[in-house]
Amino acid sequence: MDIDARGPRFGAAVTAVVLAVTLITGSVWLLAWQTLGFALGAAGGVTRSPYGWVFRKAVRPRLGPPAEFEAPEPPRFAQAVGLGFAVVGLIGWTAGPAWLGSAATACALAAAFLNAAFGYCLGCEMYLLVRRVAVRTK
User: Fold this and answer.
1) Per-residue pLDDT of the chain (138 residues; tens, 9 = 90+)
2) With contact defined as beta carbons under 8 Å apart, do 85 and 55 qualify?
3) Which residues contact 96 (CB under 8 A, 6 or more apart)?
4) What does the alpha-carbon distance between residue 18 and residue 29 come to, in Å, rounded to a whole number?
5) What is the Cα–Cα distance from 136 to 133, expressed in whole angstroms?
6) Residues 121, 77: Cα–Cα separation, whole Å
7) What is the pTM of this model?
8) Which of 51, 71, 91, 100 is the 20 to 30 Å CA partner of 62?
9) How far apart are CA 68 and CA 138, in angstroms?
């Protein structure tokens, strides 16, 4: 079942804010929260993530009907990519080196910002590329 395309973009906007505050404050706890959000989104899809729940319960009822839908698999893959960067960020900030934590968090922030501001999902594009390569190698 396809999902409202505005949901992942809303989640990316919240994620971008969380990751920006994480970089500004250096809060490992805030990055741990975002890592949990990525994990839930990767495991159950973006509609099962905390930001997906907020979108579904508080934001979407106030909006008109969706103009476009998208397949849930690319945003789910994007959540898994975000999870990878967040885990590396947590490792960098807790075990060192700290620059690794900052760099991984900044990469995740850049991807979330691109999706939130321009509707360009890097993880979704990676998903499509992986699918094309997988089909060609069969």
Assistant:
1) 899 999 999 999 999 999 999 999 999 999 999 999 999 999 999 999 999 999 999 999 999 999 999 999 999 999 999 999 999 999 999 999 999 999 999 999 999 999 999 999 999 999 999 999 988 887
2) no
3) none
4) 11
5) 5
6) 10
7) 0.93
8) 71
9) 32
Q: Residue 123: which of 112, 137, 135, 134 has the closest Cα?
A: 112
AA identity, residue 13? A
d(C-alpha 134, C-alpha 92), whole Å: 32
Q: Which of 13-27 are b and which e, b meaning 16 or more Cβ less than 10 Å from the residue's Cβ?
A: bbbbebbeebbeeee
Amino acid in the structure at residue 135: V
Longest dimension (CA), the chain: 47
Question: How far is Cα 28 from Cα 91, in angstroms, rounded to an integer?
Answer: 10
Q: Which residues contact 43 (CB under 8 A, 6 or more apart)?
A: none
Tokens coding 89: 């960020």
